[in-house]
Automatic annotation (TrEMBL):
CDD domains: AAT_like
Top-level EC class: transferase
Domain Aminotransferase class I/classII large: residue ranges: 34-349
Protein name: Aromatic amino acid aminotransferase
Family under the similarity heading: Belongs to the class-II pyridoxal-phosphate-dependent aminotransferase family.
Reactions the enzyme catalyzes: an aromatic L-alpha-amino acid + 2-oxoglutarate = an aromatic oxo-acid + L-glutamate
Region described as Disordered: 1-23
Species the sequence originates in: Streptomyces pathocidini
Lineage: Bacteria, Bacillati, Actinomycetota, Actinomycetes, Kitasatosporales
Listed EC numbers: 2.6.1.57
């Protein structure tokens, strides 16, 4: 036995591990709701479930590594060439591949802050330096400040639209103006994990933007609107050099056949799934209006969650939610992100928020 331990890369020291939203723990027979991970509260549609179960009968075999069926379906559905598509283990897996493909030690990866908490982690795992540009006081991307922060070393910029955890979205004109300022050799990743929840017509569809801009890549996922979070499948749309790099950096056989077949089935019953998204958007409106009526200032959300900037009261609020049976996502010292869930769960959130307001 040796006293030595394996040498790990210095870049890993100090990187926090990704913190998932806490599960809901039911107490004393009370129903508990999980509003901490921006999941879709609806169970799988029967047709989607059937496809996944049929695929499960063959899980002694490796999946189709090229995701042939899913790629064909995506190409047709979104009108993009096959060579511009890449699939991955959730959009976070693809985001990690994009960083790996563009940035290493000495390079910079830029994103707004606060934003999706995986960005700093995957940046540092690659050995690159995160450059975090504060959101505006209204909790929106400060695209002018981001453009000003570009240096010779910038390799990739994430624009999370709408932004997790604030729900705010950047609009077409400001995004185009920003993209005009980004050098062509810097990759801009439009992370559109919550695209289907957008109702503001001024918020652009990243796919319309990528077509004329070779340095833009769009990230989408089946985890949120399509309700396949547990199956881990997302995709990127990008011009060839970037899409090719994604194929090189992919973990072989990363997307299971269950995930592939369920994703194809989801695209085929998209009307029904997007109907559910419509109901969640109605709930978002109800929750946002309810909170506003109680006196809260809530940034306009284009996603399936709302953001309460509670500062020092964040942890207390999250604890009050938990006592009432809903688990939300606290970012201590900053605020709470609450996913829009079942109507009953949203009611509990509103009740807690009202009581908390009275106590402020
Ligand atoms: C902005 C954003 N991007 C990407 C993801 C990753 O989603 P998935 O890996 O499930 O596709 C999330 C998940 O919360 C997210 O909020």
């Amino acid at each position: 036995m040796t006293e030595k331990t394996p040498k790990l890369r210095d870049a890993l020291s100090g990187i926090p591990t990704y913190k998932p939203g806490r599960p809901a723990a039911a107490e004393g027979g009370r129903v508990a709701y999980k509003l901490s991970s921006n999941e879709n509260p609806y169970p799988p549609l029967p047709g989607v479930m059937e496809s996944a179960l049929a695929a499960a009968a063959h899980f002694n075999r490796y999946p189709d590594m090229a995701c042939t069926g899913l790629m064909a379906e995506l190409s047709e559905r979104f009108g993009v060439p096959l060579g511009h598509l890449a699939t991955g283990t959730g959009s976070v897996g693809i985001a990690q591949q994009l960083v790996q493909s563009t940035a290493g030690p000495g390079d910079e990866v830029m994103f707004a802050w606060r934003s999706f908490e995986a960005y700093p982690i995957i940046t540092r795992v690659s050995g690159a330096t995160p450059v975090q540009v504060p959101l505006t006081p209204g909790d929106v991307h400060d695209l002018d400040a981001m453009a000003d922060a570009i240096t010779e070393r910038t390799r990739l910029i994430f624009v999370c639209n709408p932004n997790n955890p604030t729900g705010t979205a950047v609009r077409r004109a400001e995004l185009e103006r920003f993209l005009d300022r980004v050098p062509g050799d810097v990759l801009v990743v439009l992370d559109e994990a919550y695209k289907e929840f957008i109702r503001d017509p001024e918020v652009p569809d990243g796919l319309a933007i990528y077509r004329s801009r070779p340095n833009v890549c769009v990230l989408r996922t089946f985890s949120k609107a399509y309700g396949l979070a547990g199956l881990r499948v997302g995709f990127a749309v990008a011009h060839e050099p970037v899409a090719d790099a994604l194929r090189k950096t992919a973990v072989p056989f990363g997307v299971s056949q269950l995930a592939q077949d369920a994703a194809v089935a989801s695209l085929r019953c998209e009307d029904e799934l997007l109907g559910r998204v419509g109901s969640l958007v109605c709930e978002r409106k109800r929750v946002a209006e309810g909170l506003a009526k109680q006196g809260w200032t809530v940034p306009e959300s284009q996603a399936n969650f709302v953001w309460l900037r509670l500062g020092e009261r964040t942890v207390d609020f999250a604890a009050a939610c938990e006592r009432a049976g809903v688990v939300v996502r606290p970012f201590p010292g900053e605020g709470v992100r609450a996913t829009i869930g079942e109507a009953e769960a949203n009611d509990v959130l509103l009740r807690v928020a009202e009581d908390f307001r009275v106590g402020l």
